[in-house]
Amino acid sequence: MEIILKGIRNRKNQFYWIFLVVIPLGIYYFEVFSISLNIPIWDEYDLALVWMGDYLGASFQERLTLLLSKSNEHRMVPYRLAVLIDYLIFGEINFRHLIILGNIGLIGLAFVIFKLNPIFKKKPLLFVPVILLIFIPQHEIIEWGVVAISIIYLYIFVITSLFFLNKKGNGNFTISIILAIMATFSFGNGMFVFFAGFIVMFLSQRKSTIHKLIWSIVMIISITLYFSDYIFFTEATSSHGFIIRPVLNLQIFLTYFVGFLSPVLKHSPILFSIVGLVVLVYLGFLFLFKWQYMKNNPVSISILFFVLLTGASLAISRVGFGIIAASAPRYILLQVIFISVLYIISIDIYKDAGTRVFNVILFASFALYGIRLYGNIQRLKMDKMERTNGLTSYFFNPNNTSLDYPNQKKAASILDISIKSGYYKPEEFVQFDLKNKEKK
């Protein structure tokens, strides 16, 4: 009888786990498919449309160079490859495909985070708060292909690279290096994976001096290539901006770890700083008083270090944008990864906290999920309407547009060339709407 009751309880827990995971995933991908449009946003005019025109008219060697070419401070090779593959398969660039491809990667990201702690296999319900943090329809990520592909796959590359680096064997080490290179050429902060990798190697002690030397050489070569022909983006900062505004730098740094709480903290710089400080103090507490556990989890520590480096670089390079830089939607995913890893570490350290504590965490997670979901969906609907209207304005009058690009004249010209060349065909429903208006 006891065995039967235990089996029933296990099936109940399994049902709850599946139910609590399916809801946020279902909502997330419903929004992905309903919000995504085949309309370029901001950088995509240059990164995809202009780039494709250059690529089609280039020689083989020039095409390789174009794949590695930079945009502002970033070299986004995975995104350019996705654009190219989409064109080769369908004969045109479809930005909706790119958005969907990028967001599918979120399942892979959740999986690699799941693998950080074996406890989730036995108690999958403990992973629900992480799901609720990650699978929230987020402005920019859910509607902007370049952000979705570059950022989501960057974090997959980073975490997976560190995961393989922590394993024995030259094969795993080789995979780790390849993934680290891919991370470096996915987005600007990807290169920090090499620095985070040293933590894994020194704590795990599974890598020889030769391995560390090879890692260092590959790091130097990769970063050198990354900065070759590099022009620093100076719009948001100056060469000494971070020196003359240290208080703002600190505020941006503290805000970086809790920017996802914007709907709750009401974008208050003071509240951001206080809550961010609490998070970092807790992290310091774990290092000081729970080091015996921490040192046995080098991958988790290295991920936290990667986020800390990213936060520091943002505080320096984006000081001109102010606090809003740290709470921008494109940075929120890494923030929730940081909090998720802290949570994963904590549930292992405080195993005996009891069911009540977890129930409080689960309730708080659902409450935060609901607050964020409501605000984000409203924003996404507005964005969809604005972009549809923007493209419609182009068809009505290319000389008077409201496209999502800083230079309207240039954007219209890019669309002209792309449409005439045949590698971009705008949304059919926009053209259908235009024909209906013309009939009226």
Distance between the termini: 74 Å
- pLDDT below 50 for ≥5 consecutive residues: which ranges? 1-9, 234-239
Outline type: globular
Report the structural category: mainly alpha
Strand content: under 5%
| Counted beta strands | 0
Q: What's the structural domain tally? A: 2
Secondary-structure element order, N to C: HHHHHHHHHHHHHHHHHHHHH
Q: Return Rg in Å.
A: 23 Å
Characterize the main sheet: none
Helical proportion, percent range: over 70%
Instruction: Quickly count the helices.
Output: 21
Average pLDDT level: 84
Defining traits:
about 450 residues; mainly alpha; 2 domains; 21 helices; about 75% helix; about 0% strand; globular; disordered N terminus
Chain-wise SSE layout:
Layout lengths: L1 H34 L8 H13 L3 H9 L8 H14 L4 H20 L4 H4 L5 H7 L10 H21 L4 H15 L7 H13 L4 H18 L14 H4 L1 H11 L5 H4 L3 H21 L1 H4 L3 H20 L11 H21 L5 H42 L11 H14 L6 H12 L1
Helix pairs in contact: 2-20, 4-8, 5-8, 7-18, 7-19, 8-9, 8-10, 9-11, 10-11, 10-17, 13-15, 13-17, 17-18, 19-21
Written description of the protein model:
This protein has 440 residues and is mainly alpha-helical. The protein folds into 2 domains: 1-150 and 355-440, no CATH class; 249-353. It contains 21 helices and no strands. The relative contact order is 0.12. Mean pLDDT is 84; it is low at 1-9 and 234-239.
